[in-house]
Amino acid sequence: MKQRLFYILFVCTVSVVSGQNDDAHKGAEQDGGVEIFGGFSGSTLRGDVSGDIDRRTAFHGGVLFIMPVHKMFGIKVGLGYSGRGANVPGEGTIKLNYVEAPLLLCVGREKFNVFAGPQAALLIKSNIDLSETLDAGISYGLSVGLNDRGFIRLVLYHGLKNAVNRPEINITNGYFSVVLGYRLP
Predict the structure, then answer these.
(1) 19 is a domain residue
(2) Got the DSSP string for 90-137?
(3) Nearest-CA neighbor of 162 among 183, 133, 138?
(4) What is the pLDDT at residue 29?
(5) What is the mean pLDDT, run by run of 10 residues, along the chain of 185 residues?
(6) In a domain? residue 14
């Protein structure tokens, strides 16, 4: 399912990017600047988990610095905050709060682009004592411009590192996030 979603996203991006006319979109290419964003995320824990686990909804926000490489490519480096964890019926909520540092390759233009890349995160607060301090994973998604500076973005994150510090248990973080943002020149 994940591979199919990624494939569909990739094909749509290539189609949109290759079909854009440079003269019709002057000024819409990748520019340097800063993006400030905030919204909500729905996170869960995957792996060696028994029983029902529901998503935890929390704040997701941060800042990304844009470094254009080409009119169709850019690199975004940032710092953000993400509330993660899960709701366990009958047991309570697992709350894991992270400071994140993504490094994203962005393909497209400011009006529509897709991005993907590695992301490292540092656990700053947790309500369980089994939490691992560092997390690493892959972040990807798409961004659609709402006007000259505003945008809406969908972010998906898949943790690759065990979120608990017990080797006999393998649990990873995962979330989706929907944010609104503003691009500064």
Answers:
(1) no
(2) TTEEEEEEEEEEEEEEEEEETTEEEEEEEEEEEEEEESSTTB-SEEEE
(3) 133
(4) 55
(5) 48 45 46 93 87 90 95 95 91 92 94 96 88 92 95 96 84 95 93
(6) no
CATH number of the domain bearing residue 117? 2.40.160.20
Residue 7 in domain: no
Q: In angstroms, rounded to a whole number, what is the distance separating the alpha carbons of residues 126 and 97?
A: 6
Quote the number of domains for the chain: 1
Decide the pairing of beta strands 150-159 and 112-126.
Answer: unpaired
d(CA 50, CA 134): 24
Q: Which of 81, 80, 86 is nearest to 131 (CA)?
A: 86
* Contact residues for 2 (Cβ-Cβ < 8 A; gap 6+): 158
The C-alpha atoms of residue 153 and residue 38 are separated, in whole angstroms, by 10
